Amino acid sequence: DDAFASAGASATTDTIAALWSEIAGTQSAPTRNIYLRYSKDSGATFNATPVAINTGAGKDKGELPVLATNG
């Protein structure tokens, strides 16, 4: 009996990605950043440290992340 619903991932080969926006800072100077975590083994394990997506000139200005796939 599985505790979680399956999203159609195959046993060990699908990549699963989680993408989110994180708001921090202060009310007068908020920071908004986008992060990514991924699994290359159908969710059995994920990368240890979230990957910062909006870096450089876009740092602290990320909102409403969107993720596209190729399959």
Describe the structure.
This protein is mostly beta strands and 71 residues long. It has no helices and 3 strands. Strands 1-2-3 form a 3-stranded antiparallel β-sheet, with no helix packed on it. The radius of gyration is 15 Å and the shape is elongated. The protein starts with 15 loop residues before the first strand and ends in a 19-residue tail after the last strand.
Fold blueprint:
Blueprint: E1 16-25, E2 30-39, E3 51-52
Task: Provide the descriptors you would attach to this structure in a database record.
3-stranded antiparallel β-sheet, 71 residues, mainly beta, 0% helix
- Which regions have little confidence, pLDDT < 50, spanning 5+ residues? none
User: Rg from C-alpha positions?
Assistant: 15 Å
The count of helical stretches stands at 0
By oligomeric state, this entry counts as single chain
Percent strand equals 25-35%
Calculate the mean pLDDT score and round it: 81
- Kindly name the structural category: mainly beta
Short description:
The protein is mostly beta strands.
